Amino acid sequence: MNPIYTSANLPQGSGPAITSFTASSMTVSSGTSVTLSWQATGAGYYIISPQIGAVRGNSVNVTPAQTTTYTLYATNQYGRTTATVTVTVH
């Protein structure tokens, strides 16, 4: 398989930077929709967990049934950066 990476030929560059990851409401009733939004630079793709998976753009709607901490993973060929936001359900 090519290429074979060694310390001499590893790709060099900056990992992605997440400048914000927010929820439209931090506290909601069960079944209420919340928009998760983010701003990031240098990412090739994004994943949100739990349950959401790969996403496009810079926002996604979720409907948490219980208090949930969402994690945004921004990834490129040089690394991965994460940010979290918690939505409290009462």
Number of strands: 8
Mean pLDDT equals 93
Strand order of the largest sheet: 2-8-7-4-5
The backbone outline, from C-alpha atoms, is elongated
Helix/strand structural class? mainly beta
Low-pLDDT runs of 5+ residues are none
Compute the CA-based radius of gyration: 16 Å
Count of helical regions: 0
Can you put this structure into words, describing what you see?
The chain is mainly β and 90 residues long. The chain contains no helices and eight strands. The protein has strands spanning 17-23, 27-28, 34-41, 45-49, 53-55, 59-62, 68-76, 79-89. The strands form two sheets. The chain has a five-stranded mixed β-sheet, with no helix packed on it. Strands 1-3-6 form a three-stranded antiparallel β-sheet, with no helix packed on it. Strand 7 and strand 8 (79-89) form a beta hairpin. The radius of gyration is 16 Å and the shape is elongated.
Brief sketch in words of this structure:
0% of the residues lie in helices and 54% in strands.
List the SSEs and their pairings:
Layout (H helix, E strand, L loop, with lengths): L16 E7 L3 E2 L5 E8 L3 E5 L3 E3 L3 E4 L5 E9 L2 E11 L1
Parallel strand pairs: 2-8
Antiparallel strand pairs: 1-3, 3-6, 4-5, 4-7, 7-8
